[in-house]
Amino acid sequence: MRARDVPDGGARQTQCAGQPVFSDPPLGPVDVGKDIAREAGLRSVEAQGERMVMHEAARFPVIQVVAVAGIFGVWIWMHRRATRRAAARWRDRPPLSDDGFLKSCGVPDDPFRIKVALAARSSIARLGTVPPETIEPNDSFAKDLVQLPFWDSLDWLTLVFEMDKKLGFRAIPANDFIDSAVKLAGGRAAELKVEHVVRALVLTARQPGQKPTDEGGSSTENEGPVRS
């Protein structure tokens, strides 16, 4: 017996001697549609799987950012609560009179300089949310005032703006007084105290229309007598 292929309308036929012819029926339109639908379904499942993987991969950094933001928010809340509690304890301090404050800071007996010194004391207290009479000359910014709101980060420019509002005019050269204060503290910024800052503000303050007599502000030779 010998098999041979017999063409029949495009379908493959296999015929052997003495045997009937067997053939695979040709695919009709319905069968072709089913195959196309099956392949499309498989591709859809694969595409959906890829999208899910990409979505999970993209969501992971978002979760990290949200977690870090949450931790930072909790830290801010705890820090603010601690500074508010410190301010509440600070308010129980015994008050120091203005005269005692001016004398301890070595402020000259001059109306304008006295006004600047008291404005500085009031501004420091207001930013720290405490009464002015509780601010003492020996208070350290790095050890004492750092416990209060605002003063946990030194912002001298805001202090200058606060004093300008208190005085009613621009009296303090913003870039001058802090260098003078550090010099009064022995060149060590970490040792800055209220008395250093107040004295520097007093020495650099200018009345409206007054020109500085040197680079640091007003001349120290014309300070006037110190309060006694």
How would you briefly describe this protein structure?
With 228 residues, the protein is mainly alpha-helical.
Topology record:
Layout: E1 4-5, E2 13-15, E3 22-23, H1 29-90, H2 98-105, H3 111-127, H4 156-167, H5 177-184, H6 194-204
Antiparallel strand pairs: 1-2, 2-3
Which short descriptors sum up this protein?
single chain; 228 residues; mainly alpha; 2 domains; 6 helices; 52% helix; 3% strand; elongated; disordered N terminus
Q: What can you see in these coordinates?
A:
The protein has 228 residues and is mainly alpha-helical. The chain has 2 domains: 29-90; 98-222, no CATH class. The chain contains 6 helices and 3 strands; from the N terminus they run E-E-E-H-H-H-H-H-H. A 3-stranded antiparallel sheet has the order 1-2-3, with no helix packed on it. The longest helix has 62 residues, at 29-90.
Largest sheet: 3 strands, antiparallel
Q: How many E strands?
A: 3
The domain tally reads 2
Strand order within the widest beta sheet: 1-2-3
Rg for CA atoms: 42 Å
Distance from first to last alpha carbon? 136 Å
Taking pLDDT < 50 over at least 5 consecutive residues as the criterion, the unreliable ranges are 1-16, 213-222
User: Whole-number average pLDDT?
Assistant: 76
Helix-strand string: EEEHHHHHH
Number of helices, counting only DSSP H or I runs of 4 residues or more: 6
Strand-pairing-aware structural class:
mainly alpha
Assess the beta-strand content as a share of residues: under 5%
Roughly how much helix do the residues carry, as a percent range? 40-55%
Shape: elongated
